[in-house]
Structures are given as structure tokens and as C-alpha cells.
Design goal:
205 residues, mainly alpha, 9 helices
Length: 205
């Protein structure tokens, strides 16, 4: 098998669906090819990290500042262990899974006594940044494969459903600080997902 053929089979190898004959050929190649072996190890590590993330996190500080800093284009790639080539759909799916699990922040972004006007201001900031990224991604998906774009779309649908449910709860109980914080956490989750997708687009270009 060629290098490209091996790389195309790493996803199936990782989830255990690769036929036995092909698996044996892939394993022989990986034993001899350091470059492909690094790819396989990077994929395995990323999937393991995604599975190990906690489902709830309690942030010790306001999350907006860190997210805001990441909105500016970066001069270098942040995933140094993965060569600068088109991301495979499963690899991006693993990153998105990490975002969805690690971003499920159901506790406080700020103290619960924050007045509703402050919530409205934060809400506007998240929505503006999220809208800008979503439009840019839709307008120019770059070299992302259709399968990868589908993964991003499905993941956004999951987050958007959670946002809709939080918004409905807040409409039923307006000015509830706990519901405000939960909704802001969902917005942050969506923004982080879009930022990771935009980052993947730059990697694929």
C-alpha cells in the first residue's frame, strides 16, 4: 500500500472496523514507516483525550477573555504533532467531541448576582463573534472535505438545540442568574466549536 492508502485507513483502524487482511497490511507498513506511525499515534492520542475529558467543568475565571484572544488569526498551527495536510473527518470529529465534552460548562462564568443588563451585554458579544465565524466558515469552507463539513454541521445542530432549550427556560424564568449563566456557557460552547472548525480550515488550506 502507498502512504496515502495507509493514511486513508487509519480511521477504520482506530475504530476497529478495518478488515483483517487490510489491518495486517497497515500494521506491517506502520512498523516500517515512521511518518505514518506518527499519524496513527496522533489520531489515537486525540481520540483518547476526547474520551477522557470530564462532562462538566467549573471554570475558575471568566472564559470570554481566553476565547476572545483566540479569535485573531494565528500565525502558526496549534497542533504540532499533525502534519499540515487536509484533516481527516474522524480527526476533526474527535476535536469537536473534545469541544462538546470539555465545553459543557453548566456552572458559573461570573458571580450569580450579576444583573440582567450585564448578561445582555455578554450575550451580544458571544452572538456577534459566533455569527461572524459562522458566516466566514459558510462563505469559504476552504479545503475541508464534505464529510468534515457534515460533521461540523451536525455538531452545531446539537449545540444549537441545547441553546434553544436554555433560551426557552430563560424566557419562562427571566432574570434567573443560574439560567443566564447556563445560556452563556452554551454560547461559549458554540463559539469554541466554530473557532476549532475555522482552525481546521486553516490547517487544510
Amino acid at each position: 500500500m502507498t502512504h496515502d492508502e495507509i493514511l486513508a485507513r487509519l480511521d477504520a483502524r482506530a475504530d476497529g472496523t478495518l478488515p483483517a487482511g487490510e489491518l495486517a497490511a497497515v500494521e506491517r507498513h506502520l512498523a516500517e514507516c515512521a511518518a505514518c506511525r506518527r499519524e496513527a499515534e496522533a489520531l489515537a492520542a486525540l481520540l483518547a483525550d476526547a474520551r477522557a475529558l470530564p462532562r462538566e467543568l467549573a471554570p475558575g475565571r471568566d472564559l470570554w477573555g481566553g476565547i476572545e484572544d483566540r479569535l485573531a488569526p494565528r500565525a502558526t498551527a496549534t497542533v504540532s504533532s499533525i502534519p499540515p495536510r487536509r484533516w481527516r473527518p474522524r480527526l476533526l470529529a474527535a476535536v469537536i467531541a473534545a469541544v462538546l465534552l470539555g465545553g459543557a460548562v453548566l456552572l458559573l462564568l461570573r458571580p450569580p448576582a450579576r444583573p440582567s443588563v450585564a448578561f445582555t451585554r455578554e450575550q451580544a458579544r458571544y452572538l456577534a463573534a459566533s455569527t461572524d465565524l459562522a458566516r466566514a466558515l459558510a462563505r469559504d469552507p476552504g479545503h475541508l472535505a464534505p464529510e468534515t463539513q457534515a460533521v461540523v454541521g451536525r455538531s452545531l445542530s446539537v449545540v444549537d438545540q441545547a441553546i434553544a432549550e436554555a433560551e426557552e427556560a430563560l424566557r419562562a424564568d427571566p432574570r434567573n442568574p443560574g439560567l443566564e449563566q447556563m445560556l452563556l456557557a452554551r454560547y461559549a460552547q458554540r463559539l469554541e466549536l466554530l473557532q476549532r472548525a475555522t482552525e481546521a480550515k486553516r490547517q487544510a488550506s
